[in-house]
Amino acid sequence: MPASFSAQFIIFGLHINKIKNLNQKNMAELTPEHAKSYIEANKDRFLNELFELLRIPSVSADSKFKGDVRQAADYVKAALLKAGADLAEVCETEGHPVVYGEKMIDPSLPTVLVYGHYDVQPADPYELWDSPPFEPVVKDGKIYARGACDDKGQMYMHIKAFETMSKNGGAPYNLKFMIEGEEEIGSENLAVFVEQNKEKLNADLILISDTSIISTEHPSITVGLRGLSYVEIEVTGPNRDLHSGVYGGAVANPINTLCEMIASLKDENNHITIPGFYDKVEELSTAQRDAINKAPFDLSEYKRELGIKDIEGEAGYSTLERTGIRPTLDVNGIWGGYIGEGAKTVLPSKAYAKISMRLVPHQINDEITELFTKHFESIAPDSVTVKVTPHHGGDGVVVPTDSIGYKAAEKAFEDAWGKTPIPTRDGGSIPIVSMFQEVLGLDSILMGFGLDDDAIHSPNEKYGVFNFLKGIETIVRFHQRFAEMKK
Amino acid sequence: MPASFSAQFIIFGLHINKIKNLNQKNMAELTPEHAKSYIEANKDRFLNELFELLRIPSVSADSKFKGDVRQAADYVKAALLKAGADLAEVCETEGHPVVYGEKMIDPSLPTVLVYGHYDVQPADPYELWDSPPFEPVVKDGKIYARGACDDKGQMYMHIKAFETMSKNGGAPYNLKFMIEGEEEIGSENLAVFVEQNKEKLNADLILISDTSIISTEHPSITVGLRGLSYVEIEVTGPNRDLHSGVYGGAVANPINTLCEMIASLKDENNHITIPGFYDKVEELSTAQRDAINKAPFDLSEYKRELGIKDIEGEAGYSTLERTGIRPTLDVNGIWGGYIGEGAKTVLPSKAYAKISMRLVPHQINDEITELFTKHFESIAPDSVTVKVTPHHGGDGVVVPTDSIGYKAAEKAFEDAWGKTPIPTRDGGSIPIVSMFQEVLGLDSILMGFGLDDDAIHSPNEKYGVFNFLKGIETIVRFHQRFAEMKK
């Protein structure tokens, strides 16, 4: 709604008049139309820059890409400086570095800290990609590449929104950027960095684009994220691989045992059986559940798009509830025995699994990891030994919808999309959001522009060119709206 | 018992007098002492020849070793000719070749067909070997190498027993050799070869060394082998890998589902739940079970040697029964999702397993494979699709202990080891034994010399030098005893 915005904008301009003449003048010039035409005029360059970043295989999980991860950090630093930052630095950590950048207009003005990540998920299995994961291409208006959506594409929108403001009179307040390289492996070193740089990271709000909208027809803002507990399991039977003909039937097979143990983690209603697992799970009111179930959702389209005959989940809950407000348990990987071509009659010594649990608000990652470990050890028969190793994790998050930040984001969507965004609870996890709350005392606004079928973490990850450009526009509007509402 | 043997041998010598003077004369010269000293005098060469064969990584399951498998076939052909065969040939099949060789003394004399295999199991995981699998070494009197026992070492004993006879007057009757290259992958092309060469393979008996003795203190002859049904499972959930945060809890995870399906294949008593699975299983009498349980077995030593706190198996049966007379079901391999370093929150599209069932006599491989497939498909929830692909298999075998072949083997052990061998039922499977019975109408004598802890199919496979040399001696005695008893 550009008209009402303009009116409010003038008021804003008058206020900052006292502070900085140049800004006032230039900001007044950056009308929504002006921002839009700047983005339109520069879109090919914006995309080409993103493609350069997408070509760097910055897979944080796999140490063989260590140099590439570093190269991506350097690229982000340079991009921040080019976009108008006064300062940008690649900050060392025990693992991959954090890129920090800032544009300080005036310390007395509000400050927004943008968070994103430049690392990506592993791209394997490579053979399932229609085009190589690190050679971005645009097909049917979508950018195909690992990281196109998660999170290089979404993170880069912020740098280009910053540029759009910088080149057109400057941002309306102070901007800080913290772009990390370990989001896909648990952000452990980011937590240390944040702890050590509380002063530097001081801000009014954190802005993050690493989530999805319902559809381009139904923009939405994420107001809930699930937490995550991720463990790796090792089950050991005999001290060496055995011949299944000689020992089979008399010695526990760790694969069979692991399967039995995994199967026992859910009952016939797909309820998780770990004692205490649901103790802190928030039970929503009928009204709250009704609101969730009002979001547009077409089950037969969902099944068709996934190629499945039927869905499956916890009894008593809808699909939107199962992915939004209920905790889950998934095996993300399993391996053991002979997995090559042909047949081998081995009774293996060891079997392994990677298991993650999505947690809802109030469930604490560390507590759940401990409950899992205790339970898993307790159900192991004497014929095997089990080892549970925690990977990264994080707690769930609920974003209040009555904050200025949320209202500004809502307005920004209304301005750019002509529609009021629907508040949604996402199934995914951004573990650092609860950490930011805890360590910095800051709320985050989760203003993502991906789509659920963008295949993040899958082969053929994509991100719409429309979403990328519209996202930049929306982010510019957010900063203008937030500046205005903070007066 | 050389004394009583000598007496019988003279009678034998008189019998064949009518047939072939030369053979009679020379065989009469090959006393047990003479054979023993020939083996002793040539043992270093015998071992060096075996080592050459062990150095060839003839892994039949993995196509990247195809050339090596061929090289092993050529080696066996050359070794047969050198040992005294009139004819030796590498016979093409649709897969790896069969080596056939023969020494025809006189068509009217008995003929024994020796079966063995020159292919080996995959050697991975390589990192668990104390010395490289294809660089044989002798440590503490054991030959360490993939195939040392299964079956290169045991097969090569027959070639060296043949040489021992050839160089000392000749074998007492016709000998044929059929050494295949696909035993570890199901002998499918051998079945075709046998079907197409019934005439050529005509014999009185098949002699095989691909089994174990209880211990060097307790020689034994295998009189029962379990059959094998081996299937590969593919479980498909969604049509692509998904983000477990976005879809987890609402879409079936094929790994969880596979685990649940595998877990359901056994009940709390470790009884297999496939309908009809036990229908044809022979129930042994108390006397028969008592006989089995009289075999020397030390449970605490068994557990200590395997490094396990407890054993696990079908309720109501002893360890010897579980591995000898009861059918089993083992997962030999499982894989799916992300199995690399670190964590990936993927809900995979597919999960896989290799499952084998050991069958007891009267259970038919094809029937069991069909029962498994039908059952597995029937328990699959609508949220996934499953595909069951049969690998190789074979039926169980019972060897009659009142045949001339068995009696000759028993005598040969008595001659060479000074002890009457114990008839045992082995847990393993040699699927071709029932095929030989069916297609050629021939019984097999399973005169193996391995030990259960030889780690066949495992890292650090070994074979005793003692077993190798004593085996050659015993095989020579078998041929002499069988010739004598067939008079």
Plain-language structure description:
Chain A has helices at residues 2-17, 21-29, 32-54, 66-83, 152-166, 188-196, 244-247, 254-263, 286-293, 299-306, 319-324, 365-379, 404-417, 432-440, 465-485; strands spanning 87-91, 98-103, 111-117, 137-139, 142-144, 174-180, 205-208, 220-225, 227-236, 242-243, 328-337, 346-347, 350-359, 385-394, 397-398, 422-425, 444-446, 462-464. The first copy, chain A, is of the alpha+beta class. The first copy, chain A, has 2 domains: 2-225 and 396-485, Aminopeptidase; 227-281 and 327-394, Alpha-Beta Plaits (2-Layer Sandwich). In chain A, the strands form 5 sheets. A 6-stranded mixed sheet of chain A has the order 1-2-6-3-7-17, sandwiched between helices. In chain A, strands 11-13-9-14 form a 4-stranded antiparallel sheet. In chain A, strand 4 and strand 5 form a beta hairpin. The longest helix of chain A is centred in the N-terminal third of the chain and has 23 residues, at 32-54. The two termini of chain A are 20 Å apart. The interface between A and B is large, with 102 and 102 residues. Strand 11 of chain A pairs antiparallel with strand 11 (328-337) of chain B.
